[in-house]
Give the backbone structure.
Amino acid sequence: MKVLTVLGARPQFIKAAPVSRVLRQAHEEFLVHTGQHYDDAMSDLFFRQLAIPRPDVNLGIGSGGHGAQTGAMLAGIEAIALEQKPDRLLVYGDTNSTLAGALAGAKLHIPIAHVEAGLRSYDRRMPEEINRVVADHLSDLLLCPTETGVANLAREGITEGVKVVGDVMLDAFRDNLDRARSTCTVLADLGLQRNEYQLLTAHRAENVDEPEVLARILRGAGDSGRMVLFPTHPRTRKTMHDAGLQAAPNVRLIEPVGYLEMLVLEDGAEAIVTDSGGVQKEAYFAGRPCITLRERTEWTETVEAGWNVLVGTDPEAIAHAMRIFRPHGPRPDLFGDAHAASRIVDCLAGNNMSTDWTR
């Protein structure tokens, strides 16, 4: 089996690492990096830390508007697919790289497999929601992390080719947490102690491209009175610079960190404040309270379990949650048993063995 894998953004590198490791034991993978994330801290560092094979092709698309970026990706992926003639095209998540890969496969009649199928926030203002809906409706194999994804797809009339495989980010988390704890010195380097800081991340366009919205997030973090560590995404830092925004003294900005460093920071945080879908899950894996800077989330299971609270961008709600939101109840095994990668490869190969970790 020959699989053409399309990647382009930091969360996809994390998801692809366990799958590529299993896939290449018995099959051929041709890895295309669109270049959606392109600097060392957002791309190359993840390939090194996670031992992901070097991309066979890097399209080098870079940043840009949704139409221009997706169109350039589509043209590049289509040309590669025509040359490589894969048996399957594999996409992850909900970025523009996901959308372009799914469109290219569908136009060329290459069976598409979508990892993280079935996620829905039901907020069409989010570009990621559009991307994941389109990718799901174009895919032949829909690899859901949870039963919620299956139910979401069924409501849209998608029932064929749907599998529950668990969440491959849990594979990566468990594969790397002990190594991160033993090798990363990020806490000592930053002069931090466990449980004495909160971790903040913000990168979604609707939160950081508008200075007024980003200012509300920064005010909420400042008003919390907590020590806040803020690894700052390039687009967030640009908005702050252009608009002259300043963080409060208790909010410490640092450069983006690698995957292993991020695991250590998540593992040691008193609470995690984020607008990232992946970080919401990692907070749950680590048993840390998650305060989500959105009105809706595709990871509804974490909210229902009581470990995630949605606060939007209201400064008072952010500050209040950062001060008092500390769940202590059980954390059900919502995301599988950390063997999602093996199930995904079995599904790609058409094996008939049971792939559903919930049964």
User: Anything to note?
Assistant: Residues 66-84 form the longest helix (19 residues). The chain has a mean pLDDT of 93. The longest strand covers residues 2-7.
